[in-house]
Amino acid sequence: MYRLEYPWLLALLPLPLLLYWLLPAYKEEQDSLRMTFFHYISSNLGLTPQAGAVIPKTNWLQTVLAPICWALIILGLARPQFVEPPIQKIQPGRDLMLALDISQSMEAPDFRTPDGKRMRRVDAVKQVVSGFIRTRKNDRIGLIVFGQAAFPVAPFTLDHDACLQILSQTDAGMAGPQTMIGDAIGLAIKQFKNSDAKERVLILLTDGNDTGSRMPPRKAAEIASQNKIMIHVVGLGDPRATGEDKVDYAALNAIAKETGGQVFHGENSVELRKAYATLDKITPQNFKTLSYQSRRELFVYPIAAAIILLLGYHILMMAVSIASRFFSRRLRSTEISASDVFKVHI
Prior knowledge:
alpha/beta, rod-shaped, six-stranded mixed sheet, 10 helices
């Protein structure tokens, strides 16, 4: 789309005509020779002299080019532009960190598919979390896995395909046999340090209880709350189990309550999908659409055209002047040689 940045400058187009009509003629005093017989000369030449009537002659080309060059200069000053189609950019308003437990207990094949087949906990989690990531197109997503230690495997990014690829390559036991929930929360807090998003959400998924983190989970949750990070917790497994396989929902509730989050039970595939569907609803996508249109300045073209026309006109006039002088000299030399020949014959 073409547009003018200053279209009001086009009102200057008739300015030369207004000046010609409204302003008095330019007068200049010059020395002159008074001749008593001037009227005889002017009458014999058929001229009617007027006071101050020395008017420079113009040719038809100058008459045509002057308004064209003026119009081109005004058009250049109005800054013609070509505006490109709008480019829309999504600016995320939320950073979403997923912390997934991949301790050895995630190998347990106690989840069932809709057709009744058994599957490992880690496989069920990867399926559900992958679907959740695909629905969050406008959120920056990061990924942490933890077991005996916590590891950041994907920073906050809009490249969700990369997150899905990393998630597909993750398996139970890769981070050790134990479950360090407090360390996972502490690592997430560090990841959020470089986040400028107004909303910061950590979704923590675990199937056990904390087994000796360097930072106690409740203390980590308190620090997360101070950093305005909301933690939602999804618990897996049977709360009636014993030992490290037992899900400590009391501790998980304390973590979520400290930060204003919620706790969800994902004891089977159906409950796990419901938990992430609820998370998708209570954390609606928060983003801002920015529209940008690049512009290409075109003022150089009318200005360059005006300069080329003026230079071309002056070069043409110079060539005509040189040619006329050359031919006039040749003509004079021919006349002189002819008169010499005539004298010789006489």
